[in-house]
Design goal:
Blueprint lengths: L13 H4 L19 H7 L9 H25 L4 H7 L7 H7 L6 H20 L4 H8 L1 H4 L4 H18 L14 H19 L7 H18 L6 H12 L8 H7 L3 H12 L3 H10 L2 H10 L4 H10 L9 H12 L3 H11 L3 H14 L2
């Protein structure tokens, strides 16, 4: 609720799970790694985040697809070790996703939260539709995206292609380009390496030490070749940077939302708030409604703009019923711009600092 919000209001999504010790548990339980946020998120949803089957299915698709693609690349990279190829030959098909499903505790809270955010963006893109580059430039016109500028045209095309990769339909084990932030990509690389190594060791005999060295070598090779700048979120940020001063046009934010360009809207908002687009998207997709109100007020959004934004987020927020939007709008009217600016300033600080401070403030308030 907005009237209870402060500049240190509780953080949500991957911004909170950047710090493992901050996982919230029920009274009397111990915060041990095996009992971290994975199970809690699924089986004990909060009032603001009810179970969303489509989001769960899409999260599994992104996670399984990225892991499968990394496994396939890792197998190719292991060609320098024929003994490992021989040991893995009884399992020619991808196995890492099935192994992760059997041992989900291998997932860190931050990686799972990131995958949920990706899934939420995908649902938004599917619900909104994905207009192509021609649609954008025709609708928004030269003052907004300068259709005659080849750099802008190329950036729009790159964003459209990247969005298309995310919204393409497929099974959980269908490979998906792992256009992840470096830290999440590294976690999946070493997860895949561990899964394959556990299988290969069964037939490695005395070559167990050499096997580990081979997997480490291939893992580092994959990390060295990774490009985290090709995700739709990174492409949206690149597009906004290329727009220069045109990105600050007063009516551009509303136009991006009207034309159902969710990532462009988020990147434009991030520029104006001096935040990362990933953080803005995380709040829009997974954060408390109070934080969405904070962002909207800090952007100078009127009451009608806030209602429009909440209506746009309905595909990923089933709790936003008509009644919930009416109540949220009433609280929004009472949110001072100064308080919103202070809250956004707090959100610009490093995520681990925010999470630990939030934890200590909640503990001392009891």
């Amino acid at each position: 609720m907005l009237h209870r919000m402060s500049v240190f209001s509780s953080l949500a999504g991957s911004t909170m799970t950047d710090s493992w010790p901050m996982t919230r548990v029920m009274a009397g339980m111990s915060a041990v790694p095996v009992g971290h946020a994975i199970d809690l998120a699924f089986f004990f949803p909060t009032d603001e985040r009810p179970r969303h089957d489509a989001l769960i299915a899409e999260t599994r698709r992104h996670l399984g697809g990225c892991l499968t693609a990394i496994e396939m690349a890792l197998r190719v990279s292991l060609d320098h070790a024929p003994a490992i190829a021989t040991a893995l030959s009884p399992w020619p098909d991808p196995v890492c996703w099935r192994m992760l499903c059997d041992q989900p505790a291998m997932l860190s809270p931050a990686l799972l939260a990131h995958m949920q955010m990706r899934a939420g963006v995908t649902l938004m893109l599917r619900q909104f539709g994905q207009p192509g580059a021609d649609h954008i430039t025709e609708e928004e016109g030269e003052p907004l995206l300068r259709a005659d500028d080849p750099l802008i045209g190329n950036a729009v095309s790159a964003l459209t292609l990247a969005e298309g990769r995310w919204i393409a339909r497929g099974g959980e084990d269908q490979p998906m380009r792992p256009d992840l932030p470096a830290e999440h990509h590294a976690e999946l690389v070493w997860t895949a390496a561990a899964c394959l190594a556990s299988i290969a060791r069964r037939g490695a005999g005395e070559a167990g030490d050499a096997l580990l060295v081979a997997f480490e070598r291939s893992g580092w090779a994959l990390l060295a070749d990774h490009d985290e700048s090709v995700s739709p979120i990174a492409e949206a940020e690149r597009l906004v940077r290329g727009m220069g001063a045109a990105a600050d046009a007063p009516d551009l934010l509303g136009a991006a939302l009207d034309q159902r360009r969710f990532l462009l809207f988020a990147a434009l908002a991030a520029r104006r708030l001096r935040m990362r687009a990933m953080q803005v998207i995380d709040i829009l997709v997974m954060g408390p409604v109070a934080q969405i109100a904070t962002l909207c007020r800090a952007l100078g959004g009127a009451d009608a703009d806030y209602r429009h934004l909440l209506l746009s987020l309905r595909p990923i927020r089933p709790a936003l019923s008509d009644l919930a939007i009416v109540e949220a709008s009433a609280h929004y009217r009472d949110l001072p711009e100064m308080a919103a600016d202070a809250a956004v300033s707090a959100l610009r600080t490093p995520a681990p600092f925010r999470a630990k401070l939030d934890h200590l403030l909640q503990v001392t308030a009891r």
